[in-house]
Amino acid sequence: MSSTQVANTGLPDKQVPLWRDPSKRGIVFQVTALCLVFMLGYWIFSNTQANLRRQSIATGFGFLSKEAGFEIGEPLIPYSAADTYVRALFVGFLNTLKVAFTGVILTIFLGVFVGISRLSKNWLLARLATGYIEVLQNIPVLLQLFFWYGLFHTALPGPRRSLNPLSGIFFNNRGFYFPLPEYHPAYPAMAAALLAACCATYILRRWARARQDKTGRIFPVLPVSLCAIIGLPLIIWLAFGLPAGLDLPHLVGFNYEGGFSFSPEFGALLLGLVLYTSAFVAEIVRAGIQAVSRGQTEAAISIGLKPGQVLSLVILPQALRVIIPPLTSQMLNLTKNSSLAIAIGYPDFVAVANTTINQTGQAIEGVALIMVVYLVISLVTSAFMNWYNKKKALVER
Amino acid sequence: MRFAKSGFVVLLAASIMWLPLVALAGETLDTVKARGYLIVGVNGGLYGFGMPDEKGVWRGLDIDTGRAIATAIFGDPDKIKYVALTTQTRFTALQSKEVDVLCRNATRTLTRETELGLNFVAVNYYDGQGFLVPKKLGVTSARELNGASVCVLPGTTTEQNVADFFRSNKMSMKPVVIEQNTELNQAFFAGRCDCLTSDASQLAGVRAVAPNPDDYIILPEIISKEPLAPAVRHGDEQWRDIVDFCVLAMIEAEDLGITSRDVDEMLKSPGPDIKRFLGVTPGNGKALGLDDKWAYNIVKRIGNYGEVFDRNVGINTKLKLKRGLNAQWKDGGLMYAPPFK
């Protein structure tokens, strides 16, 4: 239609005016919209800077190299009040990673277990799992954190009257203390042996699978690999003469020192977050398993597979496709909910950043840092989970 | 036609961008008067300084300071709204204009005065930092606290001071940092930490509401200077002068010997200082931008500094604090107001 119009006006095709050519018009509008967005952003930025300057509030990231001046309760790396803000923020970041990493692993195990339990034919197990899920899903997570923290306060005694369930293990309201093996050259060697055993197990599994595909003979991978994983480090340990030195926690002045310990803040945060998030994960797992059609289960049973084998060989591989994307969201939720740590005194990244904001007055830079850190953690987590999801995708024929 | 429309939008956006950012002097007073009440940032959980009592009525030294400012502007101390702020949010609330003035037992420091864009006015309480410990620990000096767990509020000078103190005495500490006053006190009473550190007046307040106050002692060491003063934003000199002189008016009233009970008779006093102070000789109020009876209203409705101190934190209250550094200069203290003329 337009070509005949152009032909009628006598103009060649290429010289359609700008406002009548849809694609060129589209480009103009998009460029204009982009310019408007940039101008708005620039206006907000310059307005903010002018306001900050007028109220003589400091700007810029120069504060990061100043002395922090405050202590942090549970640093994973050596830290003192004389270190810079950057180091303090890094300590907070490591604490957040510690909670997030441990929390995610425990949540997945617990959530899968509870989800499968809810579908169990055992009436008591199914009802217990249902009760667990219903109660923990519906109470706000902050209240659950306060509950566990309050429980630790009231149930645990002071350091001078610690609970001593086993020799070397102490529980009090300052923390949970466990003995740690003292350093000995045997331990790196044992770690290396463990790593070698794990690699050998992986290779063994692949070889056994290939052999089963070709000849149908099943190789008992699980018992053999367990022997290797437990046996090789054990042999190394015996070879070094059974080193058994322990770094025992002992009372020094006000608190226990030595050994491995974690604080009631960490314990309460981990417990609260794991229990809360695992209730959601349990529902996701149940949804995934129920999404696999009943016919699969019946067919698997009819060819003689045991119930455990049905679950692991037929149901779960298909259910994982449905489970993994919502599971990623729950992992991100756990990571972000760990910022509630400041309410119960665990020094995570948000707590340290808040103190920094308070002492330097630079709220905008501080909040920007918090956003960047959580964005990075979340993006890395979801990138990893998406890669895993793609790997587990069923290849359609 | 469509192109002309989008061009118009572009021009409009461009013109908005160049609107000048006008900072008017005196805008805070105008805003407060137009609103009809003053918004004060307060503690919310500190007995004696800023806390609602059992009937929900706000009481405290900082509360009375805020009410004095409201009285000076409106003649009525009840034209006021209190916003409870934690140590994490107090300065950002003031910077972002959520509150007009901060009466929240904040210590005046160089960094806060310069980098945070705040102005501290006259000090309304001179304090120092101390340690509260349970008697059963058997500790008699702060130097015996090596390795102790210390309960402290985040983002305070307290946090920095205690880190400095332990470092300079070559001791180590394990901080327990909880944001809310009430949760922190609960952690201390439950035994989570060996000692609680804060300004000595705050420690007296915490001990007053302890389940068994006689089981706790405040250690003798005072490890820092903590001049507590109300704060306002940079950029508005008139508002700063008003808040400053409201605090100083209460101190000056005590110096001149005027109390809330005899202020009406003092109106007839021949002394020139008293006449200028109470507005019988006009001039002070107009210079500040307030009514000439501003100081009279403050003394009549709120009282002088001595009355405010005795009512909230004095020896007859649960805190049992002596005047100490907060006495008048004639009695050896630091309360010294400039001449009101």
Percentage of residues in strands of chain B: 15-25%
- Average pLDDT reading of chain A: 87
Question: At CATH's second level, what is the architecture of the domain at 85-139 and 265-392 in chain A?
Answer: Orthogonal Bundle
How many distinct domains of chain B?
A: 2
As for the CATH topology of the domain at 85-139 and 265-392 in chain A, it is MetI-like fold
Quaternary organisation of the protein chains: heterodimer
Strand content of chain A: 5-15%
What low-confidence regions of chain A span 5 or more consecutive residues with pLDDT below 50? none
Instruction: Compute the number of strand runs of chain A.
Output: 7
For the biggest sheet of chain B, the summary is: 6 strands, mixed
User: Low-confidence spans of chain B: pLDDT under 50, at least 5 residues?
Assistant: 16-25
- Write the CATH fold name of the largest domain in chain B: D-Maltodextrin-Binding Protein, domain 2
- Counting DSSP E segments of at least 2 residues, the number of strands of chain B comes to 13
- The level 1 CATH classification of the domain at 85-139 and 265-392 in chain A is Mainly Alpha
The chain pair with the largest interface is: A-B, 56 and 56 residues
Structural class of chain A: mainly alpha
Shape designation of chain B: globular
What is the CA-based Rg of chain B, rounded?
A: 23 Å
Q: H/E order of the elements of chain B?
A: HHEEEHEHEHEEEEHEHEHEEHHHHHH
